[in-house]
């Protein structure tokens, strides 16, 4: 039986010192008394004498039950093992506001949906990721409450941010209806907090989750080396993007510098090598550029709320959508399959033998043991 409880010492042994910490910020968001962050890892401020274990329970890398989570959030289990549970058609979407599209990334659909939710009073704050004002392109969580705030956070960063810490900031500021925009690891951590029966931390105040497509995030130091190879620096960058197998850097002078994304796989954060979720499978809405033409984003509606908000935002004129073609959906599925296939190899190598009742077997041998040729 999988271990589903532990304390801070267990979190350190199993996750932090085992190369699995994804720096999502969930543990520190709900345990500020003991946990801080240093060099993008949780650090204990003082010896933890609590036996509560909320940090262990909420961490997306200690344990995660995908099908149980499907049932809890969506009411039924997925039929698509690559993309997870979703409703209706997979769409391409963009903001109708031309100025918003020009300012945001890939059509600005996330910004437009957040602005719709704020206008309707369905949220009073959105936790997003912006670049720090003092350290260019260093991502940080930010609580957005106005259009200016939302626009200030537009654009992909490609380095990790402890975004769930922003949820704690929103709670401390008194906000009661919060949206979170995050990567798959952020979404998983937030869902574990919401679904926890043992620890009540106010996570029900997070009303809407928008998840981003994610192959991996890059180590900031190694990304700086990539920029050096391309002849630029963080200070000169206006925008990052990934399109058609290439990492694209647009400078403030308007130059476009590119590198094959295959060359950058070695620059991924170590913990990203053990993540199987490409399409933010447990969000209300999942959004990414893969599978859409330039200036549009692919959108997957998952929960009833996600589908409803998407439909109403379009009816209100905040976004426009069109059905993704079979070829575009295949492109999304291809990348999701690649991430699951490649990372499963690494997960199998790192995992300890699995116990199923009295059976103890290595993870890589499970398929051969149970399936005949």
Question: What can you tell me about this protein's structure?
Answer:
With 373 residues, the chain is of the alpha+beta class. The protein folds into two domains: 65-215 and 279-369, no CATH class; 218-267, Nuclear Transport Factor 2, Chain: A (Roll). It has 13 helices and 15 strands. It is globular and about 60 Å long. It starts with 7 loop residues before the first helix and ends with a helix.
Gist?
The chain has 373 residues and is of the alpha+beta class. Helix content is 33%, strand content 20%.
Summarize the helices and strands and which ones pair or pack:
Layout: H1 8-14, H2 26-29, E1 35-38, E2 41-44, H3 54-58, H4 66-74, E3 91-95, H5 98-103, H6 109-120, E4 125-131, E5 139-144, H7 147-152, H8 164-172, E6 178-182, H9 184-195, E7 206-212, H10 220-229, E8 237-243, E9 246-251, E10 256-260, E11 285-288, E12 297-301, H11 304-315, E13 319-323, H12 326-350, E14 354-356, E15 359-361, H13 366-370
Parallel strand pairs: 4-6, 6-7, 7-11
Antiparallel strand pairs: 1-2, 3-12, 3-13, 4-5, 8-9, 9-10, 11-12, 14-15
Radius of gyration: 20 Å
Helix content percent band: 25-40%
Query: Total helix count?
Result: 13
Question: Can you tell me the overall shape?
Answer: globular
Low-confidence stretches: none
Strand content is 15-25%
Which structural class should the secondary elements be placed in? alpha+beta
User: How many domains make up the coordinates?
Assistant: 2
Give, in order, the helices and strands.
Answer: HHEEHHEHHEEHHEHEHEEEEEHEHEEH
> Distance between termini?
28 Å
Average pLDDT level: 90
Record field, number of beta strands: 15
The largest sheet, given as strand count, sense and whether it forms a barrel, is: 8 strands, mixed
């Amino acid at each position: 039986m999988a271990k589903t409880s532990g304390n801070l010492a267990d979190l350190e042994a199993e996750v932090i010192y085992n190369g699995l910490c994804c720096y999502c910020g969930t543990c520190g968001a709900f345990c500020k008394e003991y946990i801080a962050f240093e060099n993008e890892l949780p650090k204990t401020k003082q010896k933890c004498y609590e036996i509560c274990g909320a940090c262990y329970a909420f961490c997306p890398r200690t344990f995660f039950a995908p099908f149980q989570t499907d049932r809890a959030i969506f009411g039924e289990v997925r039929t698509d093992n690559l993309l997870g549970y979703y409703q209706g058609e997979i769409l391409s979407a963009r903001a109708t506001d031309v100025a918003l599209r020009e300012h945001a990334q890939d059509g600005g659909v996330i910004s437009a949906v957040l602005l719709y939710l704020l206008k309707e009073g369905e949220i009073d704050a959105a936790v997003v990721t912006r670049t720090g004002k003092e350290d260019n392109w260093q991502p940080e969580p930010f609580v957005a409450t106005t259009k200016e705030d939302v626009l200030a956070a537009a654009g992909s960063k490609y380095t990790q941010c402890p975004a769930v810490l922003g949820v704690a900031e929103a709670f401390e500021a008194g906000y009661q209806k919060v949206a979170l925009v995050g990567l798959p690891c952020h979404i998983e951590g937030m869902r574990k907090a919401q679904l926890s029966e043992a620890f009540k931390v106010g996570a029900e105040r997070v009303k809407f989750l928008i998840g981003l497509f994610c192959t991996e995030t890059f180590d900031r130091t190694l990304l700086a080396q990539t920029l050096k190879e391309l002849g630029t620096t963080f200070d000169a960058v206006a925008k990052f993007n990934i399109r058609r197998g290439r990492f694209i850097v647009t400078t403030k002078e308007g130059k476009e510098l590119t590198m094959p994304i295959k060359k950058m796989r070695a620059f991924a954060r170590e913990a990203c090598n053990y993540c199987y979720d490409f399409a933010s499978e447990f969000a209300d809405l999942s959004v990414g550029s893969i599978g859409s033409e330039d200036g549009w984003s692919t959108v997957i509606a998952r929960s009833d709320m996600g589908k409803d908000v998407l439909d109403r935002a379009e009816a209100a004129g905040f976004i426009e959508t069109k059905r993704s073609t079979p070829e575009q959906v295949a492109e999304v599925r291809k990348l999701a399959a690649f991430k699951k296939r490649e990372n499963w190899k690494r997960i199998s190598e790192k995992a300890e033998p699995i116990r199923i009742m009295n059976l103890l077997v290595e993870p890589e041998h499970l398929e051969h043991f149970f399936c005949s040729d």
